[in-house]
Amino acid sequence: xxxxxxFMNPVEGQxxxxxxxxxxxxxxxxxxxxxxxxxPSNPGEYQYAVDYIGxxxxxxxxKYEEFISEMNITYYxxxxxxxxxxxxxxxxxxxxxxxxxxATSRGxxxxxxxxxxxxxxxxxxxxxxxxxxxxxxxxxxRKPYIYFIVFTLLMGLYIYIQESLxxxxxxxxxxxxxxxxx
Amino acid sequence: xxxxxxxxxxxxxxLILLAMYQPNHGYGxxxxxxxxxxxxxxxxxxxxxxxxNNLSKKGWIKALPAEKNERKKDYLITDLGxxxxxxxxxxxxxxxxxxxxxxxxxxxxxxEKV
Lengths: 182, 114
Description:
The complex is a heterodimer of chains A (about 180) and B (about 110).
Chain A: E1 2-4, H1 12-23, E2 26-31, E3 35-40, E4 46-52, H2 58-70, E5 74-78, E6 90-92, E7 102-104, E8 113-119, H3 131-166, H4 169-181
Chain B: H1 11-19, H2 26-36, H3 45-58, E1 61-63, E2 75-77, H4 79-105
Antiparallel strand pairs in B: 1-2
Helix pairs in contact in B: 1-3
């Protein structure tokens, strides 16, 4: 069965939705950029969690995925911004960890999330099991948003300054005079 | 060599170190801790990954050379790691004694077999 779904909250929201599917007897079989493919399973046999890994370098991601497999957990890679994923080959990510600032399509682009799947053991599936780690993980998720807000504010400021100063000729001349004065 | 004493240890670090007195891998550590704490502590994969990397960086545990046909990476506690555990045991004993003393004076019963 193929399903299409967009999320306002791609981490908790997506995990919740996948767990609902699992409860109804659907197990993930494949995750594409826009679609999820499901296969029948016993209701509640599997459980899901979603991890943000967009701050990691590609090398770090591979190490983490190896570790996940060692834990007998299946993972599926997923882009974070559905419907708006990158088609380009290189992306600058100033908010990422050391070594992860330049993302490429062979590496971290479109792999910002990991969907984790394991057999249901009756306990909630938490990726981070103590409070410090949870806070750290949330801080990493916040970084791209802060960067985006600062960027937007700077763009707004730039446009505002341009419009208010250079749209009137006399202002322009004043500015020119000030600039020349220095 | 990291700092010899870093006190108190987090519960996560302390339990991982204990689980690695025998060569152990991520999954084994999770099982060990879940078993010993009767399911109270279940390490999430993100927490365990971060903690193992961190302990390894400090030199308290070290990765063993990978064995053939074995995909899982084993770790073992180092002498420096054992020092941390011993120091932590001392600290725990001390605070336990304080708690015991106060509760005894209050006439509370202390369950020795927790």
